[in-house]
Amino acid sequence: MSFLEVCDIHAGYGGADILKGVSLSLREGEIGVIAGPNGAGKSTTLKAVFGLLHVSKGAILLDGNDITNRRPQELVRAGMSFVPQEKNVFPSLTVLENLEMGAFVRRDDYGHMIERIFDFFPPLREKAHQPAGELSGGQRQMVAMGRALMTEPRLLLLDEPTAGLSPKYMSEIFEHVVAVNRSGVTVLMVEQNARQALAIAHRGFILASGRNRHTGTGAELLADPEVARSFLGG
Amino acid sequence: MNEIVFFINKVLVAGLVTGSIYAMGAVGVTLVFAILRFAHFAHGDLMTLGAFIAFALTAAFPHAGAIFGLPTAFVMLPAAMALTALLAIWIDGRFYRPLRERGAKPVVLVMASVGVTLMIQGLLRLFAGTGTRSMFIAERKDIFRIELPFELARRKIVITEPQILVILFAVVAAISLHWFLTRTRTGKAMRAMSDNPDLARLSGIDTQQVVRTTWIIAGSLAAAAGTLLSLDVALKPDMSFNILLPIFAAAIVGGVGQPYGAIAGGFLVGFAEVLSVFNWAILLRPFRPLLDGVVELPTHLAFVPTEYKLTVPFVILVAVLVWRPTGIFRGKVI
Amino acid sequence: MTTYRREIILFALLAILYGAVFTLFGAAYGLRMSVEALCYALVALGLTIQWGYAGLFNAGVMGFVAIGAFMTVLVSFPPNMAFWNSDMPARLGTVALYAIAGAALTWGATRLNRLGVPSRLRTLIAVMTGAAAWLVVSAALDPVARDIERQAGFIGGFGLPVLLGWVAGGAAAGAVAWFVGRICLGLRSDYLAIATLGIAEIVKALLKNADWLTKGTLTVSPLPWPVPTPEQVGFIWGRALYLALMATLVVVAWALLERAWRAPWGRMMRAIRDNETAAAAMGKNVNRRRLEIFVLGSVLMGAGGAALITFTRIFDPAGFLPLNHTFLIWVMIILGGAGSNLGAVFGALFVYVVWVMSEPAALLLFDAVREAGQAWFGWQAPADLDSRALQARVFVIGLTITLVLRYAPAGLIPEKATMQAPRPSAREKN
Ligand SMILES: Nc1ncnc2c1ncn2[C@@H]1O[C@H](COP(=O)(O)OP(=O)(O)OP(=O)(O)O)[C@@H](O)[C@H]1O
Ligand SMILES: [Mg+2]
Known about the structure:
The complex is a heterotrimer.
Chain A: E1 4-12, E2 17-26, E3 31-35, H1 42-49, E4 55-62, E5 65-66, H2 72-77, E6 80-83, H3 95-102, H4 111-120, H5 122-126, H6 137-149, E7 155-159, H7 167-182, E8 186-190, H8 194-200, E9 203-208, E10 211-217, H9 218-223, H10 225-231
Parallel strand pairs in A: 3-8, 3-9, 6-7, 7-8
Antiparallel strand pairs in A: 1-2, 1-4, 4-5, 9-10
Helix pairs in contact in A: 3-6
Chain B: H1 2-36, H2 43-60, H3 64-68, H4 72-75, H5 77-102, H6 106-128, E1 143-146, E2 157-160, H7 161-183, H8 185-195, H9 197-202, H10 207-232, H11 240-254, H12 259-277, H13 281-284, H14 288-291, H15 311-323
Antiparallel strand pairs in B: 1-2
Chain C: H1 5-25, H2 27-53, H3 61-76, H4 81-84, H5 88-110, H6 119-151, H7 162-184, H8 189-209, H9 211-214, H10 230-233, H11 235-262, H12 264-274, H13 276-281, H14 286-312, H15 325-336, H16 341-377, H17 385-391, H18 393-407
Helix pairs in contact in C: 1-2, 1-16, 2-11, 2-14, 2-15, 2-16, 3-7, 3-8, 3-14, 5-6, 7-14, 11-12, 15-16, 15-18, 16-17
Bound molecules: adenosine-5'-triphosphate and magnesium ion.
């Protein structure tokens, strides 16, 4: 029984459809990685799943419930969180306030969650009262993930969490993703650094021009010579 | 010494009062800018409207102030603020939200706010005429003359009760605003939405609630500014476009979308105005005996005649747009 | 194939409306209204290209109109000999020299950093120099202005041909627009609205208070006409000739704009308006194009203002004070259809009649209200009900603006979609 099921969706930005039939399926507790060339529709897929775009055809199921074209607010309540590719923090708010905004939908006491996130991303603890806009790229990415984790989501959508980071930070972020996943969060992420990402993935989806090109487990895709040639740079 | 006292009366007090009024208006403008991303041209008339509501309440209960020992209009201020805030929310729902939901460009919303301002003007003129009124109906304006303990100063510092109220109210409002924006959930959500509306939406922040709160703050501050201004001077139904320019200048100087900037900008514009129309020849008067026969000192030496006071905010506006379009506090420009 | 059925019907209705005015109020009145409406049409054309072609919000239309009006008075009014025969032109010249010297000094101070002065100190010196120069110049101007007012009334005009005055009016309005546009056009669209509002308020303050230039409340009249005046040929003929002149001007302006709109220049403007980012990416200088449009529109407004004031024959600064007229012109163009030149002309002709007729209509309505109130409720109407009724008409302007924006954003005569693909969806980020 899959946890997230995306069936043949079509979606776009008002003009022609960018997604022309994308399907994904992910079991609870897995990491799914979406890879593919620039402009393939990876970000668009995440946005469609999170209700930011109108899905004109196809369906999206979360834990068996149809969530196609639901508003983001409802999806947050349904246990989903999204970290966009860019502009994913509130720059003039402090780190702590960023986390609080992540918990906006929660009316209960979420103090323990903030502690957990500081344990998770130790650099954030000492910067708690600094505006997020003043942090380094890697730390900002941590704030962004922390913000998304505040609702204790069951499904976390990450769009290129390592974009623009130095290799050192990159592997750190991957470690964090794995740790988040171990704590029971299903992760669906888009990655440019497909090799590293597929290495930690349970499921991999390679898109091109708005369609699925290859699907398989992370290991399968890494082993596939065709995938390696066309999408992993040799 | 007398000259210094004169300076305090004419510049310090007047600058603080004008600055407070502009600051309260500019905070509203800047918040609307931050959350809804358009220049709200109806803000001047929102102030007038609030003042008229306070006036109507004062006329209905002319003796209410005596109970507290304060001007009645000031006692009525909370009610006027609440009513104006409700009206602001209603105006948004009727006239701005439909356009917003259609995805109209910001400049179309500016246009709509001009439409709203004209409607308010029309209604006010229809129901209240065009004459100037005093907010003091059953009472008189208290004037305090503070004597200085020095022998040298025979002049007294003159300050009226409304002027004291304006300054105190502005201080309280600024502190409450700071508390609200940094300590409350909705206040932080407001700053978040100003920073990054898309992220705010997908974090699950209730954007409708933030918009409502924005109008509550903007509307109630506008009502307060309008009422206090009318208490200090008089209730004029036609002030809207005149007050709009200094308020926008203050918001832009402070950095659009930056509430603290708007406060700073308000005082900057207020003092600039007061200093430009101040007759500097007065301060030179003590030197007259020394300079007699050397140079002739003019009796009137002001940067701008009072009739052209409006050029001051305009010049400030232009200067900021030319040299530092982001304003002091780095606001949003594009 | 685009058809013009809608246009024909609307203009036919307009003709009937004007016919009714002519028959009800007589030819002299009808002609007067037609001429004034055509002057407004020129102004409206200026605004419709700013708003409709380029999306520029000009909140100070009346300011530009007033600049044009003042310039034509200055250029074409007969010279005031009481002024020219005194020592005052010389004194005024001295003040002008002071002003030039002050400006030069200030400009020089801004260049001090070239000589190695630190830039902070440079700025301080420049600001101080500017302020000092300003004080000196205004102190020098003050007594001259007072003497002119006392001895000669005002400086008078130059007695040049009227049409030259109109050209000067357009040019002056365009120059001011260039200055404002240079500052604001690269920034948020709202800033232009704020700055033009400021310009209008300042022009208003100047005209109201600089009596030595404008004669203030004493008003300047009679202004010379470019065609024979009613005194020479009678009301009907004089106005009819003026009408012919204005009609020619409006048609010429309209035809030129239509041509420009279909030319590559117009295509580029549309590209910029519809998708600024894409146009900028294609290497178009967006702000330069916008500045052109803004100046061109303001030239039309200035010329329209000049024509209007010349027709009324009396320059009364107070006549420009109701800045709300700015928004009357806005109603004309958004009701007519933003970006549609025919729409602007139609809007101007239509809205102007309605506006003029709304005056007696409002009075009648409120008379009825007063009667009814008195008869049924014993209500004592306020004494100034009539003036209130007239003032309250701005409510209708505001209501029209909001209603049109919401329910008919394209106006009555929408811009013809002669071009390529449909516009990108409005939901795009703006
Ligand atoms: N806001 C938008 N409006 C219109 N078209 C868009 C928008 N965002 C993206 N597109 C188009 O959608 C297509 C897919 O974009 P998308 O961002 O999904 O690609 P991607 O796979 O995430 O690529 P990248 O690796 O560059 O992030 C592209 O052709 C792009 O031009
Ligand atoms: Mg992407």
